[in-house]
Write a structure and sequence with these properties.
Blueprint (H helix, E strand, L loop, with lengths): L12 E3 L1 H5 L2 E2 L14 E3 L9 E5 L1 H7 L8 H8 L11 E3 L2 E4 L2 E5 L5 E8 L5 E7 L16 H17 L5 E14 L8 E12 L5 H9 L3 H15 L8 H25 L1 E2 L21 E2 L24 H15 L1 H4 L2 H27 L6 H14 L7 H8 L9 H5 L12 H19 L5 H11 L7 H12 L4 H10 L34
Parallel strand pairs: 2-3
Antiparallel strand pairs: 1-8, 3-5, 4-10, 6-7, 8-9, 9-11, 10-11, 12-13
Bound molecules: adenosine monophosphate and magnesium ion (MG).
The site of magnesium ion (MG) has 3 residues, from loops.
């Protein structure tokens, strides 16, 4: 069916460069299939019953040249819910593969994501606009192509929160409630139920993933792989020149560095992606695909938010740096048909660990209020902190945030620990207390030798250690409110998340430790992939 074409609320130019430059699927009917030799399949969103705009990201809209306050929310909901198009939109789903939980899974592709087009700014900057939950595509593999409100709201909130935290990420422009019900077995326990459906419009320069290359490399489709590399180098790495073994190795090195910086940020803010399959890693080092993600509350490197990940905890917080390196090695293998120089690929891959170590060290130094990272002295202090944080349940976000208030002078032990009290889930006692006392004394000495004035130190720490992060239990509370029709609950929370480093009176409810009731409640501590 053809969708109606509406006049956009501003002068926008939409392009379909991906379709123009890359081979596609000639089949236009929508049924699940393998699509060898193609990078995309044309597919229109499937219209929904009654699209209503629940959230609109004004600052992103401004970057896109769109109105910051929607003049006609229903007209926007029509386009961003999948019922209409703007001139120049030529919707498609991308073909990619991936390693899921460490195993090659073959062709995956956009099973419920549909790109509407690339919005081109007068500066030449490009933004891919992609609907998630917009209906079936050739890559849906028997699933419904839809998304539920709870998971769409979580994606909208977290993309925007991550951006404001300074973490490289894809963005979210809109959240539209569809008016259709979606059936999900939330706990995978044989109890499917109807839930409200929704569509998020995600935005990024490109949603290309490692998996777009892997599907071509693993199937030895060298011709299409070269075309995808031609496109990627020209569009996203133009300074590296046209496709050649050396430019592709240089690109790999850049992807490694960008991924290292992204993961170092995750470790800085306590974010756990939850499903770091290779199809969920962006070629630009942007956090992409917010599904069973979570935020560390009690500091526990072995914590994974994803119930599907429980047996192996492959995607646990503390494993993320290693897993990203593993994923990049799979990406490098996919490039072999073009590069065929294993030592060169290995050298490029080594830049991942190097960049991660440097960046992580620099972030830790900022978090702890040191002028710079001194590997010789600081590594041991970081390791001891990691162990001390596990001596008694302590909230990661609140610990770092309140560390700035701990006096570094000659004060009694009680005064040292008092500012950290709000971070502990149980009162500190015995051996744990003693460990903390010792670590804080060492930290104080390092700070005094550190070269920053107190004011400068506190400023650095408060710019690196956020106060408001999208805690799992807050998401769950806000979802319940929005499902009941209270959209204001989402708007107020987003206000806090828009300035996560600035403590503001009246927002205490967004900064508290996880309450006891949320400890083992589904959606507050663990999530299934059901979305
Ligand atoms: P994910 O683990 O969310 O990255 O998804 C892996 C693959 O499953 C991707 O190809 C998704 O597009 C696809 N997928 C997930 N949920 C659905 C759904 N409800 N309908 C169709 N495809 C889906
Ligand atoms: Mg995915």
């Amino acid at each position: 069916m053809t969708l109606p074409v509406l006049t956009p609320p501003a002068d926008v130019r939409l392009d379909a460069r991906f379709l123009r430059e890359l081979p596609g699927d000639p089949e236009l009917r929508v049924f699940s299939r393998q699509v060898p030799g193609a990078c995309w399949s044309r597919v229109a969103p499937t219209p929904v019953a009654d699209p209503k705009l629940l959230a609109w990201s004004s600052d992103l809209a401004a970057d896109l040249g769109l109105p910051t306050t929607p003049p006609d929310p229903d007209a926007l909901a029509a386009v961003f819910g999948g019922n209409a198009l703007w001139p120049g939109m030529d919707p498609y789903a991308a073909r990619y593969g991936g390693h899921q939980f460490g195993h090659w899974a073959g062709q995956l592709g956009d099973g419920r994501a549909i790109t509407l087009g690339e919005l081109v700014r007068p500066t030449g900057e490009r933004f891919e606009l992609q609907l998630k939950g917009a209906g079936r595509t050739p890559y849906s593999r028997g699933a419904d192509g839809r998304a539920v409100l709870r998971s769409s709201l979580r994606e909208f909130v977290c993309s925007e929160a991550m951006h404001h935290l300074g973490v490289p990420t894809t963005r979210a422009l809109s959240l539209v409630r569809t008016g259709d019900a979606v059936v999900r077995d939330m706990f995978y326990d044989g109890n499917p139920a109807e839930e409200p459906g929704a569509v998020v419009c995600r935005v990024a320069p490109t949603f290309l993933r490692l998996g777009n290359f892997e599907i071509l490399g693993r199937t030895r489709d060298e011709r299409t792989l070269v075309r995808l590399l031609d496109h990627t180098l020209a569009a996203w790495f133009p300074h590296l020149g046209p496709t050649s073994p050396s430019s592709v190795v240089a690109m790999l090195e850049q992807v490694c560095r960008a991924t290292a910086v992204m993961v170092a940020h995750w470790m800085r803010v306590g974010f756990v992606h939850g499903v770091m399959n290779t199809d969920n890693l962006s070629i630009l080092g942007l956090t992409v695909d917010y599904v069973p993600y979570g935020w560390l509350e009690p500091y526990e490197p072995g914590w994974t938010p994803n119930t599907t990940d429980l047996p192996g905890r492959r995607y646990a917080f503390g494993n993320q740096p290693r897993v990203a390196g593993w994923n990049l090695a799979r990406f490098a293998e996919a490039l072999l048909p073009v590069v065929n120089d294993v030592p060169a690929l290995e050298r490029a891959l080594a830049s991942y660990a190097r960049t991660f170590d440097e960046t992580h060290g620099a972030f830790m130094a900022d978090k702890l209020g040191f002028e710079r990272f001194c590997p010789g002295v600081d590594r041991a202090l970081f390791t001891d902190l990691d162990e001390t944080l596990q001596a008694a349940p302590v909230d990661m976000t609140l610990f770092y945030r309140h560390l700035a208030d701990v006096p570094v002078g000659d004060v009694p032990d009680e005064a040292l620990l008092a500012p950290l009290e709000p971070a502990f889930y149980q009162p500190l006692r015995g051996e744990a207390w003693e460990r903390w006392r010792q670590w804080l004394r060492r930290w104080g000495e390092r700070v005094r030798d550190g070269g920053l004035s107190d004011a400068a130190r506190v400023r650095t720490m408060n710019k690196t250690n956020p106060l408001y992060v999208p805690r799992n239990y807050l998401a769950s509370t806000v979802i319940e409110q929005v499902e009941r029709g209270d959209v204001g609950a989402l708007t107020s929370w987003m206000e806090a998340l828009r300035a996560p480093y600035d403590a503001r009176p009246g927002l205490e409810r967004y900064a508290g430790r996880r309450p006891e009731w949320a400890r083992n409640r589904a959606g507050c501590s663990m999530l299934s992939c059901s979305s």
